[in-house]
Amino acid sequence: MNGTILILNGPNLNLLGRRQPHIYGRETLQDVETQCRAVAKDLGFEIDFRQSNAEFQIIDSIHEYRVSAAGIIINPGAFTHTSVAILDALNTCEVPVIECHISNVHKREAFRHHSYVSLAATCVLAGFGTHGYSLAVRHVAHLAKQGKVTQ
Ligand code: DQA
């Protein structure tokens, strides 16, 4: 086993599949987790998959994994555009951080164009739908193979 990838989901993503399906699609967060686990298993990684509507819980999860994870994939939801505290937490990470948005935030309202989280992200995915999570898992594995354990 090559390590654990933390996948963190922020507010309202528990409603994925039912929430604005014309924007976020019909797949549920459980579907996303199942897909990520399958991809990760093939690549020899474990997944810790979490969702929280509370900023402090997201920060606590980042602290828990900031050194030990193979990588952190985070869809911070609306906290992307508001949270200096999540940015500060991600800036403590010694592992790759992949910011992942289901929708293409740049094609949406102006307030979604700015991300605090991007300032700490190794790379950013937006607009790949829920498939973006699997791509992010593959990229963590790719970075690990290259021996890039830090940002
Ligand atoms: C989102 C985009 C955010 O602007 C929004 O607040 C979300 C989901 C996405 O995955 O496209 O909750 O992060």
Structural overview:
With 151 residues, the protein is α/β, with parallel strands linked by helices. The protein contains 5 helices and 5 strands, in the order βααβαβαββα. Residues 12, 75, 77-78, 80, 101-103, 105, 112 line the site of 1,3,4-trihydroxy-5-OXO-cyclohexanecarboxylic acid.
Tell me what portion of residues adopts beta-strand conformation. Answer: 15-25%
**CA gyration radius, whole angstroms:** 14 Å
Q: In whole angstroms, how far apart are the ends? A: 22 Å
Question: Tell me, what's the shape?
Answer: globular
Estimate percent helicity.
Answer: 25-40%
- What's the total number of strands? 5
Uncertain runs with pLDDT below 50, 5 residues or more? Answer: none
The bound ligands are:
1,3,4-trihydroxy-5-OXO-cyclohexanecarboxylic acid
- The chain-level structural class is alpha/beta
**Order of helices and strands, N to C?**
EHHEHEHEEH
